[in-house]
Specification:
The chain is an alpha+beta fold. The protein folds into two domains: 148 residues, no CATH class; 326 residues, no CATH class. The strands form seven sheets. Strands 10-21-20-19-9-11-13 form a seven-stranded mixed sheet. It has a four-stranded antiparallel sheet with strand order 3-4-7-22, covered by helices on one side. A three-stranded antiparallel sheet has the order 16-17-18, covered by helices on one side. Helix 2 packs antiparallel against helix 3. The radius of gyration is 35 Å and the shape is elongated.
Length: 500
């Protein structure tokens, strides 16, 4: 006992200075902090991953829907179907474990705020398939249970995550003539897209004319030229003219970049357009052997003569005629520049198709009474449908097709040494940019390069119904036959863009 007391007395003086076992104390003090930080990092990581999965899902869903927003009548139906059926997304960090990300709501928008931090309001929302340019997709909120104690950080422990995305379609075209037309329906209650779904509207012929003079304003039904070569309004005349004549022009135009105008007159544009009709004159008189300037498969134009490359208008021949109101001056729409859709279908068939008693065109069988110059049913085809029927059935007017032809004209190309164009581009169709010229005149002005990049409304196809004349007849007559559609038209270069 005395020895034990003695040893204890010896330890007392050194007890305050002894450091053995101190790490246990520090470990006990820091362990809650270390473990808490580890748990918190796990929770933050899980929350981050769930947020990323939901955002990726809403982005994918919005992209799928936006790809269908082409302003056609069924675009909203197709977009909704794409959102609901085309894309499947899953998450694996929610409190229910692995599961599908579902859609809680969808809105279609005609526009979006310029600034991402500005809210999307009811003024941006539309239910019109012709006006919808964007789609907003919201996914169903997903809750996540965290490991970190509720009593410490209650907000993190009860997190519910959601996500929203807005995407739109940006239209573009490549390999097209640098030509624009002013939207003929800009000031109408009917949108251009809605109008082009109506056959009776597509049948209406339009006189696309240049403005009368330097001080004249562009308006619905006018046309002009684009500088697509980086000159910002100063494009070389011959280069632009050549891009109108050639089969596949080295050009690309898209909505997001806008367009620059090439103002002023372009000499000999009619010669460029008319190469598409197997007519080679002016700067293109030596292009009749160049395959890049080959004509369309069907060049019926009401011309005939003894020399195939020097044809003239012939009263016994008949090209696709103008609307009747142009002949008697009774056209009223667009200040007289838009026709009534009534063209002499019966007479055209009598002259070019040897008094055919019936023809089946675009799903309809037509019966002709040539004595009375009448046809039934009265809902006649568009000129473009007539033109395509002649190509698709190998019935292009002329003696090559019919042997003994009623028309003196040969509708198959004869002047170009290589025959019709071998590309997949229809040379009688111009793919053009559509501008809302009234809006541009008011907000930008038509001043060439000084106007800057101008907004493009859309891209449409214009079927050229006859060659361009000279002088007062230097007019582009055509039918607007539809929008340029991705997957249907080889020139289309549409892309889906996430806006927020």
């Amino acid at each position: 006992m005395k020895k034990l007391v003695s040893k204890f007395k010896d330890l007392l003086p050194n007890l305050g200075r002894d450091t053995h076992g101190s790490m246990v104390v520090w470990g006990a003090m820091t362990m809650p902090v270390v473990l808490g930080g580890a748990l918190l990092s796990v929770d933050v990581s899980r929350v981050y991953n769930l947020d990323n999965e939901l955002q990726s899902a809403s982005d994918a869903l919005a992209r799928a829907g936006a790809a269908e927003l082409d302003s056609r009548g069924d675009s909203l139906t197709r977009a909704s179907r794409a959102v609901n059926n085309l894309v499947e997304n899953n998450q694996k960090f929610g409190d229910q474990g692995f599961g599908e990300v579902t859609v809680s709501s969808v809105r279609f928008l005609k526009s979006v705020p310029v600034n991402d931090y500005d809210p999307i309001t009811a003024d941006h929302v539309t239910n019109s398939p012709y006006n919808a340019r964007y789609i907003e997709v919201n996914v169903t909120p997903t809750s996540i249970n965290t490991v970190f104690p509720v009593s410490v950080v209650s907000k993190i422990s009860s997190t519910s995550m959601d996500s929203s995305s807005v995407a739109g379609m940006e239209s573009g075209v490549c390999g097209v003539a640098p030509v624009f037309v002013c939207n003929p329906y800009e000031d109408s209650e009917t949108t251009l897209y809605e109008a082009l779904e109506d056959r009776s509207v597509r049948r209406k012929q339009i006189q696309f004319k240049r403005p009368g003079g330097n001080s004249s304003q562009y308006g619905p039904g006018n046309f002009g030229y684009l500088d697509v070569f980086g000159g910002h309004g100063q494009c070389n005349t011959s280069r632009l003219r050549d891009a109108i004549a050639i089969d596949v022009a080295p050009t690309c135009i898209n909505q997001s970049s806008g367009v620059y105008l090439r103002t002023g007159n372009i000499n000999s544009v009619r010669h460029a357009v008319n190469t598409r009709f197997d007519m080679y004159s002016g700067p293109f008189k030596n292009k009749k052997n160049d395959p890049a300037y080959a004509p369309a498969e069907n060049v019926v134009k009401g011309y005939a003569g003894n020399k195939v490359c020097k044809l003239t208008e012939n009263n016994s021949a008949m090209g696709l005629p103008r609307d009747t109101c142009f002949d008697d001056g009774s056209c009223t729409e667009l200040g007289g520049r838009m026709g009534n859709g009534d063209w002499d279908f019966a007479r055209y068939v009598r002259i070019n198709h040897n008094y055919a008693s019936s023809l089946h065109i675009a799903g309809t069988t037509y019966f002709f009474n040539h004595n009375n110059n009448t046809v039934t049913p009265s809902d006649i085809p568009t000129r473009y449908e007539m033109y395509r029927w002649e190509i698709d059935t190998n019935c292009v007017p002329g003696s090559i097709t019919y042997g003994q032809a009623n028309t003196p004209e040969e509708g198959l190309p004869q002047c170009h040494s290589g025959g019709p164009s071998q590309t997949d581009v229809d040379r009688r169709v111009l793919n053009v940019a559509v501008l809302n010229c009234g809006f541009i005149q008011e907000n930008y002005g038509f001043n060439g390069a000084s106007s800057g990049a101008l907004p493009v409304d859309s891209f449409v196809k214009v079927f050229i119904t006859q060659p361009m004349g000279k002088g007062q007849n230097n007019i582009l007559y055509g039918e607007m036959i539809g929008q340029v559609v991705q997957g249907q038209d080889s020139v289309a270069r549409d892309s889906v863009v996430l806006r927020r």
